[in-house]
Specification:
Number of strands: 25
Mean pLDDT: 93
Radius of gyration: 25 Å
Distance between the termini: 10 Å
Bound molecules: 2-deoxy-2-amino glucitol-6-phosphate
Structural class: alpha/beta
Strand content: 15-25%
CATH class of the largest domain: Alpha Beta
CATH architecture of the largest domain: 4-Layer Sandwich
């Protein structure tokens, strides 16, 4: 899931524009970055590429040019080194490629090219494509050579290729996203439409097995298999450029945590009609499946409890990467509700495509309009959480749950009850975000930051809350955390609890309270340090965080506590919560 940006047009500082475009895409991958440019009136390609985040780097030392392209990398093949960063060049430095995805069959092709004398300098799969292009373009025009080479690639990929012989950006995609931006005597390419917003709102989302040839004054779209011309269905993005960066916050994650009360209040009022409409779709389905990955999967799991509790309706839950292995029973009456913040997660896209092949209908809940999942779906719901930049998902998660609360209530005709419950959650979140509560949660972080393991338990709706809590802690503070169904403790995990082990226990004001208390007592009896997250204190808590009751929406303020705890742990460890190691915001590889 790398960031890709390309420019061809009237400006002769294309390299600066590309560099800025990469900055807005850095959340997609930030192991390393690189910018290439063909200097004015020259037929060479000059490249600057570096490991590490773009941060305060610059491209002032690159020559100016009107054709430029850049890449932020999340390493798949080959370590994180300057040499492995993109763009990659051919033997003579006349062809360059940037790539997002996995060139699955590169090894055999690389061996053949090595035998032909090609010199490789990196460990990447991508560099094979550059030398393959160098080879084929000896016999074919460059754009045709890109098509021939791309058709030899197996796997899910998006590539941009340039040659010093043509003033063109040539791109092709199968699986990984690519968006074209149309300007006046200039055209753009990016892996995410939001990066184009400062320059144009007129875009075309390249579809699988399509390729694009961008000149400064013309864009041609072809079918990559048949070379047949395609008339692009241009769209006007009605998005506003996300105002401001982090504002008064040091990190996007904290900014996005504090945006949640307003977002949930907006969903409560604006999401009701969408929920009522989609409830009809769900009612007509025979067999409904909630599917998501990571944090989105925990929203799906919460949804299965909400549909059961509020609508007395059975919906199945599946993790996105697993769903594809258990969907043989799907048919034309099935409905898959696919939930994804980015709408680009490969694990979800793959499963949804398989479900579509079995004639199932797809209802997606995504945060990015125009994303691949959004365009794949028969019915679409928008989370409306605003662009989420921190890798650790916060407002998108609570937004997902909020829409599921409205959906579940709509199924039994009670959307107003759902709205009321969400407004209770807003009040509870504001309490959790109050200065006294923040201080308490930060102090808790100080008490457990040195621990190696944290355990989190919950039942019912607080079970997905426990899983989400553990993920937040793991993915940004790198402290091992495990979320558990409280009832499972005595079936094994209790063996792990020893004196001082931090045990976070969710005890909402519902039918699970008593049983959860028993779970907390079991851990305390083994020396665990009990952190009670509840509407009221209890003597067995060694530490208590107050979360006012919000009925079936209590999971929302509960998870805000978890987000803050993870954030404060990360701060105390001097880490970056927006760009944690090894991760990226959108996982567009399998
Ligand atoms: C969440 O904090 C993680 N970054 C990750 O689990 C994420 O939720 C997952 O990759 C799914 O992303 P999506 O919602 O964009 O599909």
């Amino acid at each position: 899931m790398c960031g890709i940006f390309g420019y061809v047009g009237k400006r002769n500082d294309g390299q600066k524009l590309v560099f800025n475009g990469l900055k807005s895409l850095e959340y997609r991958g930030y192991d390393s970055w690189g910018v290439g440019v063909i200097p004015e009136k020259k037929n060479t390609i000059v490249v600057k590429k570096k490991t590490g985040k773009i941060g305060n780097a610059n491209v002032n030392d690159l020559p100016g040019g009107s054709l430029s392209f850049g890449h932020t990398r999340w390493a798949t093949h080959g370590g994180v080194t300057d040499q492995n960063a993109h763009p990659h060049l051919d033997c003579n430095g006349e062809i360059a490629v940037i790539h997002n995805g996995i060139f699955e069959n590169y090894e055999g092709i690389k061996q053949k090219l090595l035998k032909k004398g090609h010199k490789f300098v990196s460990e990447t799969d991508t560099e094979t494509l550059t030398h393959l292009l160098e080879d084929i373009s000896k016999k074919e025009p460059f754009t045709e050579a890109v098509r021939t080479a791309f058709n030899q690639m197996e796997g899910l990929n998006a590539v941009i290729a340039v040659s010093t012989k043509e003033n063109l950006l040539v791109a092709a995609r199968n699986g990984s996203p690519l968006v074209i931006g149309f300007g006046k005597n200039e055209n753009f390419l990016a892996s995410d439409a939001s990066a184009l917003l400062p320059y144009t709102k007129e875009v075309y989302f390249l579809e699988d097995n399509e390729m694009a040839i961008l000149a400064s004054d013309k864009v041609t779209i072809l079918n990559v298999k048949t070379a047949r011309k395609i008339i692009p269905d241009r769209r006007k993005l009605d998005w506003r450029v996300e105002q401001g960066g982090k504002g008064k916050y040091e990190f996007y994650m904290l900014k996005e945590i504090f945006e949640q009360p307003q977002i949930i209040a907006d969903i409560a009022s604006l999401g009701a009609s969408q929920a009522k409409e989609m409830a009809k779709i769900i009612r007509e389905a025979r067999g409904t499946y909630l599917v998501g990955c990571g944090t989105a999967s925990y929203a799906c799991l919460a949804g299965s409890y909400l549909f059961s509790k509020l609508a007395k309706r059975h919906v199945n839950f599946a993790i996105g990467s697993e769903f594809g292995y258990s969907l043989d029973f799907l048919n034309k009456d099935s409905l898959v509700i696919a939930i994804s913040q980015s709408g680009e997660t490969m694990d979800i896209l793959e499963s949804v495509k398989k479900a579509k092949n079995r004639d199932a209908k797809i209802l997606s809940l995504v945060n990015v309009p125009g994303s691949s999942l959004y365009r794949l779906s028969d019915h679409k719901m928008l989370i409306m959480a605003g662009q989420e930049k921190a890798v650790a998902s916060t407002k998108a998660f609570t937004g997902m749950v909020a829409h599921l609360v409205l959906l579940a209530n709509s199924l039994n005709g009670g959307v107003r009850k759902g709205q009321k419950s969400l407004m209770q959650a807003v009040g509870s979140m504001k309490h959790v975000l109050s200065p006294g509560s923040l201080k308490k949660i930060d102090k808790l972080a100080g008490l457990i930051v040195g621990k190696k393991h944290v355990y989190v338990i919950g039942r019912g709706l607080s079970y997905p809350a426990s899983l989400e809590t553990a993920l937040k802690i793991k993915e940004i503070s790198y402290i091992h955390a495990e979320g558990l169904a409280a009832g499972e403790l005595k079936h094994g995990p209790l063996a792990l609890i020893e004196k001082g082990t931090p045990c976070i226990s969710f005890l909402p004001n519902d039918e699970t309270y008593g049983a959860n208390l028993a779970g907390a007592m079991e851990m305390r009896a083994r020396g665990g340090f009990i952190i009670g997250i509840s509407h009221k204190p209890h003597e067995i808590f060694d530490y208590y965080i107050n979360v006012p009751d919000a009925g079936e929406s209590t999971i929302i303020p509960e998870v805000v506590v978890a987000q803050l705890l993870a954030y404060y742990l990360t701060m105390r460890k001097g880490l970056d919560p927006d760009k944690p190691r090894n991760l990226a915001k959108s996982v567009t590889v399998k």
